[in-house]
Amino acid sequence: MTGQKIWVIDANIILRHILIDLPEQALQVDKILQKAESGELKLLIPEPVISDVVFVLSQLKVPKIKVVDSVYGWISLPGVSLLGIELSIVETALDLFVDKNIKWSDALIAAKMLRWNYKTICTFDKHFDRITDLEKIDPRILNNK
After folding, report:
1. Spans of the chain below 70 pLDDT
2. Burial class, 102, CB count within 10 angstroms (exposed 0-12 / middle 13-18 / buried 19+)
3. Which of 6, 34, 60, 114 has the most CB atoms around its CB within 10 Å?
């Protein structure tokens, strides 16, 4: 045996498994997951794939809590790891996405800021006010000085 194979997966792999909208493809994903669980494969999920999955499910009007449960389900599967992002950042972003009811991209920005100890964000978006550990600077204040 040549050792464990490593595959980077795209969002459509995760989406087929979650949505089962294309049953034949969903079945193929199940087989891939069995190989990952047995240790034959290691599956890596790049950071943009998480964003794509959240975006597509949100566009399909899947409730945020179900989106989060689906992502958590995938990132906790045996033989599955994240690529290019820390698990703690994804977990924080998922929590902010639901608990603070903000867009995924902003939740991801905030999670990275919190992890890397950046406290101030310059933005027009009011929903950053919901994250008490961050200070939001509205660029319009420059015109008032």
Report:
1. 1-2, 144-145
2. buried
3. 114
Position of tokens 């994804």? 90
The backbone torsions φ and ψ at residue 83, rounded to the nearest 5 degrees and listed phi first, read -125, 120
In angstroms, what CA-CA distances link 87 with 60, 63, 101?
25, 22, 20
At the topology level, CATH places domain 5-85 in Rossmann fold (3.40.50)
**DSSP-H helix ranges across the chain:** 11-19, 23-38, 47-59, 64-75, 87-99, 104-115
Residue 144: predicted pLDDT: 65
8 A C-beta contact, residue 18 and residue 58: no
Q: pTM for the complete prediction?
A: 0.89
